[in-house]
Design goal:
The chain is of the alpha/beta class. Helices cover 45% and strands 23% of the residues. The strands form 2 sheets. The chain has a 5-stranded parallel beta sheet with strand order 3-4-2-5-6.
């Protein structure tokens, strides 16, 4: 059991990168609750739950992610710390988020999951809601192993990605002015 310590400017966009079941949402909910940041964590699954009643109904991915990014942009326009809760596995997926950071002068902070594939599979199977089909998880894992980690490390205005692993149970943030 470890706690990840992060120092972040208030105008930060935390962009988690990792497989479903890696613990991204759990850790981000912890930040939201610990620091009383209502609305800090938002993503495509929140749109799916609102629009379809559950996260397993995918809907049109472009429209779903577009709606989620629009909600994120409302928050960023107010200068509030934010996160886009999704797998964010590829440069293509992260590019619109980096563009929002540039537009609102935010620091992009990559929160990268270093979780074994076996652990992600096990956690995914244990989910009551939002279970990802095995073949999709396999495809996502291949994306991560095709150099996306290095590309992710080179992306973002912060220049310093944060990593968490299977033992990380909490995140403490030192919010910088």
């Amino acid at each position: 059991m470890t706690t990840l310590k992060m120092s972040l400017p208030t105008k930060s966009l935390v962009i988690p990168v990792g497989l479903p079941g890696s613990g991204k949402s759990t850790l981000l909910r912890g930040i939201e609750e610990r620091y009383g940041l209502a609305g800090f964590r938002y993503g495509a699954d929140d749109v799916r739950k609102t629009m379809f009643g559950d996260v397993s109904t995918q809907g049109n991915p472009a429209l779903v992610h577009g709606a989620a990014r629009a909600m994120l942009e409302v928050r960023m326009a107010e200068g509030l710390p934010s996160t886009y809760d999704a797998t964010n596995l590829t440069l293509k997926a992260r590019r619109p988020l980096i563009e929002l950071c540039d537009k609102y002068e935010y620091t992009a902070v990559l929160l990268m999951a270093r979780i074994s594939y076996d652990t992600a599979q096990s956690r995914n199977r244990g989910r009551e809601e939002g279970r990802v089909p095995g073949h999709v998880l396999d495809r996502m894992n291949r994306q991560l192993n095709d150099g996306e980690w290095m590309k992710a490390c080179q992306q973002g205005r912060s220049g310093i990605p944060y990593f968490f692993d299977e033992d990380t149970t909490d995140i403490e943030v030192d919010w910088l002015a």
